[in-house]
Specification:
This protein is of the alpha+beta class and 450 residues long. The chain is built from 15 helices and 20 strands. It has three domains: 83 residues, 3-Layer(aba) Sandwich (Rossmann fold), CATH 3.40.50.20; 70 residues, ATP-grasp fold, A domain (Dna Ligase, domain 1), CATH 3.30.1490.20; 238 residues, ATP-grasp fold, B domain (D-amino Acid Aminotransferase, Chain A, domain 1, 2-Layer Sandwich), CATH 3.30.470.
């Protein structure tokens, strides 16, 4: 097992990792920018190292500074969390060259899944159903038109290096295609420094359903069921739940087994999420994330399994702590991603939290790194915290999350709590009757002010 883990991240996920380390008896090193000197992850870690000024590229993305921090503190492993360097294969390689363990999959698998064209090819080869589209990158408008005619409009132009919903453009008809291609390309170029794009059938009313996996790197793998992340704004997840209201036990086991088998064949190591769109009873692979995800707690709540603990133990060469048969799904869990934003316009609202009172009680979990008197800096994502609620069934979970949201007090900044209070009382959400476009329609019709 590792002696000391350096956490190359900040905010709630740094705290989440710290907690797992403490329970495993592993010493922790926090790193922080000068904007984060007062952050909770710095306060709770055994040691901390300042790695640079506020901009992420000079601190949390600064590989030489992170290496120096490992050297100074004698850390023998690095946990990257999510975002920042979590899916940077080169970072994993550099750590290996310095005999420091990267808590994540092999650089080869990070690279494979980081290129969405390669990821789709691999998924197909491994027997995972994929969205119909161009099997490779699109090099010309003529080629795009040929593919688009073959799969039928509307089509989606997507960036090979994509992430965070960027570099994605819908072409509804032939007339839109050339513009969608050039916009997607230039967006991809500026966001990822890579303008490679590919084409996919645009599914009109799908749900986003993803499967959590865990592999031991030696050909052993299990799945931990699904998360339904269909409530999205700008292709980004807003609320997640498990189990999905759209699946039964048989469908869950079937897709779960397909994915777990694929991970066994790949000899995948660590935690990962295989993402699908789900429409008319069919699953379509869109991508795989080779890291812990923001919404992992909903899976933890219904399985009772600590995913970060498993991730650390497996990275240290340990075995998966259970077999597929041991994994059972109890009750229902929902997560709300609460941001420091105006709940109607989504304008960021960084600043000082004058009064803070998180909800509590049976089945309520708050993963957050803020506290009363804390100032949310303007440099990073606007997550205030994640409210995760568990109930014996979906109905109990909804009742509980309504009262938990009503209890939640964050004063001094604007947050999206009022939006969630409305959403969890909406009849469509209560019935589980929503797809990836539901929230955009709700907001277009007025949202909170409508
Ligand atoms: P990113 O890596 O940018 O997050 P994904 O491929 O994971 O991109 O897709 C993010 C979201 O975009 C999906 O959850 C879905 O809402 C939408 N999306 C992606 N592919 C399609 C598609 N083929 N048809 C319709 N919507 C899609």
């Amino acid at each position: 097992m590792f002696d000391k883990i350096l956490i190359a991240n900040r905010g709630e996920i740094a705290l989440r990792i710290l907690r797992a380390c403490k329970e495993l008896g592993i010493a922790t090193v926090a790193v922080h920018s000068t904007a984060d000197s007062d952050a909770m992850h710095v306060r709770l870690a055994d040691e901390s190292v300042c790695i640079g000024p506020p901009p992420a590229r000079e601190s949390y993305l600064n590989i030489p500074a992170l290496l120096a921090a490992c050297e100074i503190t004698g850390a023998d492993a690095v946990h990257p969390g999510y975002g920042f360097l979590a899916e940077n294969a080169r970072f994993a390689e550099i750590l290996a060259e310095h005999k420091i363990s990267f808590i994540g999959p092999s650089p080869k698998h990070i690279r494979l899944m980081g290129d969405k064209i390669e990821a789709k090819r691999t998924a197909k080869k491994l027997g995972i159903p994929v969205v119909p589209g161009s099997d490779g990158g699109i090099t010309s408008d003529e080629e795009a038109l040929r593919f688009a005619r073959a799969i039928g409009f509307p089509v989606l132009v997507k960036a090979a290096a994509g992430g965070g919903g960027r570099g994605m453009k819908v072409a509804r008809s032939e007339a839109d295609l050339s513009e969608a291609l050039s916009t997607a390309r230039s967006e991809a170029k500026s966001a990822f420094g890579d303008d490679a794009v590919y084409l996919e059938k645009y599914l009109s009313t799908p749900r986003h359903i993803e499967i959590q996996v865990l592999g031991d790197g030696k050909g052993g793998a299990v799945h931990l069921g699904e998360r339904d992340c269909s409530l999205q704004r700008r292709h980004q997840k807003v609320l997640e739940e498990s189990p999905s209201p759209a699946l039964n036990a048989e469908q869950r086991a079937k897709i779960g087994d397909i994915v777990a088998n694929a991970m066994r064949e790949l000899k995948y190591l660590g935690v990962g999420t295989v993402e699908f769109l789900y429409e008319n009873g069919e699953f379509y692979f869109i991508e795989m994330n080779t890291r812990i995800q923001v919404e992992h707690p909903v899976t933890e709540m219904i399985t009772g399994i600590d995913l970060v603990n498993e991730q650390i133990r497996i990275a240290a060469g340990g075995a998966i702590g259970f077999t597929q048969k041991d994994i059972t799904f109890q009750g229902h869990a929902i997560e709300c991603r609460i941001n420091a934003e105006n709940p109607a316009t989504f304008r960021p609202s960084p600043g000082r939290i004058n009064h803070y009172h998180p909800p509590g009680g049976l089945g309520v979990r708050v993963d957050s790194a803020v506290y009363q008197g804390y100032t949310i800096p303007p440099y990073y994502d606007s997550l205030v915290g994640k409210l995760i609620v568990h109930g014996r069934n979906r109905n109990e979970c909804l009742m509980r999350i309504r009262r938990a949201l009503d209890e939640y007090v964050v004063d001094g900044i604007e947050t999206t709590i009022p939006l969630f209070r409305t959403l969890v009382r909406n009849p469509d959400i209560a019935d589980g009757n929503y797809n990836i476009h539901w929230l955009e329609h709700f907001l277009a019709e007025g949202g909170l002010s409508g």
